Amino acid sequence: MFASRMAHPLDSYVRRDAAEMKGYFDDVHPSLVESFLYQGSLFQLPDNFNAANVYYSTKALERAGLDRPADDWSVDDFFRVAQAMKKSGQPPFLPYFWNNRLWGGVVPWLYINDASILTEEKATGGDWFWKQFYPDEKPRGGGFLWQNADALNDRTIESFEVLQRMVSEGLAANPAQGGGNELVALFSRGSVGMTPAGGFWVKGLKEAGFANDDYDVSFFPRMRSQRHQFGAAGYAIMETSRRKDEAWEWLKYCVSVEGMRIAHPQPDSSLTRRSLNDELYGAGVGPAHWKVFYDTLDRFPTTGPIPAPPQQAAVEQALIKNVVGTITNGRSGVRAGLETMQRDLELALKGR
After folding, report:
1. Considering the entire predicted model, what is its pTM?
2. How far apart are CA 189 and CA 90, in angstroms?
3. How many other C-beta atoms lie within 10 A of the C-beta of residue 342?
4. Which domains does the chain have, with CATH numbers?
5. pLDDT digits (tens, 9 = 90+) for 52-95
6. Distance from C-alpha of 321 to C-alpha of 323, rounded to nearest angstrom
7. Which residues fall within 8 angstroms of residue 41, CB to CB, at 6 or more apart?
């Protein structure tokens, strides 16, 4: 939407109403806003987000004789937890369940290894925004650019080898494709020990009758780094709109404290306004360590958005179609699978 200029840049409005917008930006982590910068201009105001964290069954952890994972646990620690869960569980119990998709699929395992399926660069520009609203931050540039395939990077291969090992050792099943409805049922029945999810899942588990002390949440484990993945949503003004001034007033209201409270009365996503998450997840609504949702951004400030080039749909399809084949043909088959993925990603990106 940004690259095609379907959305109207908000720069002039944000600058004009800088005093009014200061309270909003003071309450929102810069990483979330950065994800909506493109070529130096701001195109959306984020109002909710979900980082990919690790949900786990407290019963499965206790049954395995384990304590909550440390905040800085490693991938080796993850395997030890998964192996202990498997040993203490009964079939068809699975220590780890995941979906084959862009958010929460392979990408979190790539990000914690400082890798991705695409190269990641920063556009120039954006200094006007950072100096105005985040003066204590080093300017982050004008937004993310994903312009080249990177499936054959050594770190990418290493992360896929981790997933291949999980599947081959019976610690994880072949990934399911699509959403998380099946996963909610499996998790609530005690058939799954760990799974990637964000703050949105609190509502889903509550509706499934899952008590908030039957599960908890932790950061993703560490490889070369502990960088996490997130997806954010927000409001934009269409370039074709004839009422841009009125639309801007509506956008400002939507990201106000009152507007966010009205839009998100239930824990269906983490809110970009840090101050509102206490009332959303606190008071016994969320799991014991629900603060992990926002702490992900604070503890790991390089945490970044889903790879989202203008050709995102084609890129996601190139990823999804190759994941299962890459991780189910033995360790030696990982590189061959990624060679095919690299080719498909290059074809997808040619659409630019």
Report:
1. 0.95
2. 13
3. 19
4. 7-50+121-145+230-276+296-305 (3.40.190.10), 52-115+149-228+309-349 (3.40.190.10)
5. 999 999 999 999 999 999 999 999 999 999 999 999 999 999 99
6. 6
7. 9, 10, 11, 125, 126, 142, 143
